[in-house]
Backbone:
């Protein structure tokens, strides 16, 4: 139970930071990409602050602990391969972010503000996740013996 409460608290703090920084507003994100027009550099400042906070946090936590407080071990990515799936997924993420102004990290907190665009984005994101997992499951399903 403590594990879920701590994850919920971390998510709430993240969502609050996204909301306070304005990154739940798709026009703010889209203005970052509009270099020739109404460019807004605040996204890079938010990302830089997040990167600095994460780098320091990882150094402190991994230097002080062998395992997290509410779990037996740290769950870190083990696959470090840059393959076509990673590149394609990154491209889809980037194109979607550039078109909609939402990324998953900003869209989930934006649900609290409501509105059809964010609901449509999150719905499409969920459908995309389910579809990708289904197709991946079909691709990696072992062949049946006769």
Residues:
């Amino acid at each position: 139970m403590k594990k879920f409460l701590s994850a919920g608290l971390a998510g709430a703090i993240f969502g609050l930071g996204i909301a306070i920084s304005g990154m739940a507003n798709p026009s703010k994100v889209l203005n970052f990409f509009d270099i020739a027009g109404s460019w807004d550099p605040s996204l890079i400042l938010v990302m830089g602050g997040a990167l600095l906070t994460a780098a320091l946090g990882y150094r402190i936590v991994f230097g002080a602990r062998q395992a997290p407080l509410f779990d037996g071990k740290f769950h870190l990515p083990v696959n470090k391969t840059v393959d076509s799936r990673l590149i394609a997924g990154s491209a889809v993420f980037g194109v979607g972010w550039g078109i909609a102004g939402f990324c998953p990290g900003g869209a989930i907190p934006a649900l609290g503000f409501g509105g059809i665009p964010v609901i449509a984005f999150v719905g499409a994101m969920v459908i995309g996740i389910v579809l990708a997992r289904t197709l991946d499951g079909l691709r990696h399903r072992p062949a049946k013996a006769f």
Notes: The mean pLDDT is 86. Residues 2-139 form one domain. The two ends are 46 Å apart (CA to CA). Residues 67 and 76 are 11 Å apart (CA to CA).
